[in-house]
Write a structure and sequence with these properties.
mainly alpha, 2 domains, 151 residues, Helicase, Ruva Protein, domain 3
């Protein structure tokens, strides 16, 4: 019975959010906007975790900053611009595809295509290369071989 309870608890368990009750805004609409923005911001301590799920102190500071900006009347884009201006584009979980970031977005597929092209060229050249073991015999060698085989 105890095992069943543990299994059910694990199945029902959901990831808890790190947002503390004192951070939550009174206005449900603003809180929903804050959560939406927070899901797109990276915790600078935890790396690939958004600030809404991170327990790091810096993530809590970022959550408070987002909520303060919303209370001041900023739009979602203005809040993101403010945070990016302060911490750089690394804070975004999904970086923009403009400027220098465009090179990073294109580099992976470009390298894959270059490697595939190089591999294809290698296979084609190897197929067209003469067989290294097949050498042409001179007339003298052919005559000697015929003599050996006739014996």
């Amino acid at each position: 019975m105890k095992r069943l309870f543990v299994v059910l608890a694990l199945l029902v368990a959901q990831p808890s959010l790190a947002v503390t009750p004192d951070e939550i805004l009174d206005d449900p609409e603003l809180e929903a906007r804050a959560r939406d923005i927070s899901k797109g911001l990276r915790c600078l301590v935890c790396r690939n975790e958004n600030i809404d799920e991170s327990n790091a102190e810096l993530a809590a500071d970022l959550r408070v900053l987002v909520r303060e900006r919303l209370l001041e009347g900023d739009s979602n884009d203005e809040v993101l611009d403010y945070v990016v201006g302060r911490y750089g584009e690394y804070v975004l979980l999904k970086p923009t595809t403009q400027g220098a970031n465009l090179i990073l977005w294109i580099a992976g597929p470009a390298m894959l295509l270059l490697a595939a092209g190089g591999g294809l060229a290698y296979v084609r050249r190897r197929g067209q290369a003469p067989d290294a073991g097949a050498t042409v015999l001179s007339a003298e060698e052919e005559a000697r071989l015929k003599d050996i085989l006739d014996d």
